[in-house]
Amino acid sequence: MLEAEGAIHRTPGDRSITHAYPFSNEPTGHSVQLDPGPRVFAMCAIDALGMPFMLKRDAQIESACIECASPVRVQIQAATIRQHSQAGLMVWLADQPEGCVVAIDICPNLNFFCSREHLERWQRRTASSGRQLTLAEAVGYGRKVFEALLDDDADGRAADGLPTHDR
Ligand SMILES: [Zn+2]
Predict the structure, then answer these.
(1) Which of 5, 8, 29, 150 has the fewest CB atoms in 10 Å of its CB?
(2) How many Å lie between the centroid of ligand 1 and the Cα of residue 37?
(3) Which H or E element spans position 126?
(4) Domain-embedded: residue 8
(5) Please, which pLDDT band fits residue 154 given cuts at 50, 70 and 90?
(6) pTM for the structure as a whole
(7) What is the CATH number of the domain that holds 126?
C-alpha cells in the first residue's frame, strides 16, 4: 500500500478527503500540501488549484513544467495567490469533448508550464486544442469549477468528513 510506504501522508480525521475525486489515491505530478491537513495528490493542475477553494484551506501546490520538468510551486493563502515560482507561469486548459470522463481523458492534458514559450512549444508538438491560461486565470477557473461542484451537492454530502476552516 502506498500509505504504508509513506507516499501518502494524512492525519486521522482527514481520511475521507483522499478517497474521492478530485483527490488521487496514487501519487501524481501535482501534490497539494493542505494547511491544515495532509499532503494529497491532484489529478491535474486545475484540480490542484481548485482544492484550496473547495476545502477552504491554504495550500502549497508543487508540480513541474511538463515541457522542461523545472519545479513549479504555487502558494494559495486566504483564497489568493500568495506567491509562486516562475513569473510567467502558465496552465494549459485542454478542450473538453462532450461526454468524456474529465478525470481520465482530460486531466493528463491540464498541466503547468514554466513559461508561455514552453507552453507553445508543447502545444505545437502535441497539436492540442485548448486555451492558454495565466496562473491568475487558472486559479479563477479552478475556483469556479470547484465551488460549482459543491453547489451541485446541495444536501452537503460532499462536505461530509471535511473539517471546516477554523481559523
Ligand atoms: Zn518549462
Answers:
(1) 5
(2) 29
(3) helix 116-126
(4) no
(5) very low
(6) 0.76
(7) 3.30.450.410
CA of 68 to the centre of ligand 1 (A): 4
Question: From ligand 1's centre to the CA of 71, what distance in Å?
Answer: 9
| Number of domains forming the structure of the chain | 1
- Per-residue model confidence (pLDDT) at position 3: 41
Split at pLDDT 50, 70, 90, the class of 22 is: confident
The verdict on residue 9 lying in a domain is: no
Residues less than 5 Å from ion ligand 1, measured at CB: 65, 67-68, 114, 118
Question: What is the residue whose three cell numbers read 486521522?
Answer: 12
Tell me how far apart the 2 most distant CA atoms of the chain are, in Å: 46
Indicate the pLDDT class of residue 146, thresholds 50, 70 and 90: confident
- pLDDT surpasses 90 at 70: yes
- CA within 13 Å, CB half, 151: 7
Cell matching residue 93: 486548459
Q: Is residue 29 part of a domain?
A: yes
Find the 60 Cα to ligand 1 centroid distance in Å: 20
Amino acid at 80: T
Range of the domain at 54: 15-154
Does residue 143 have a pLDDT over 50? yes
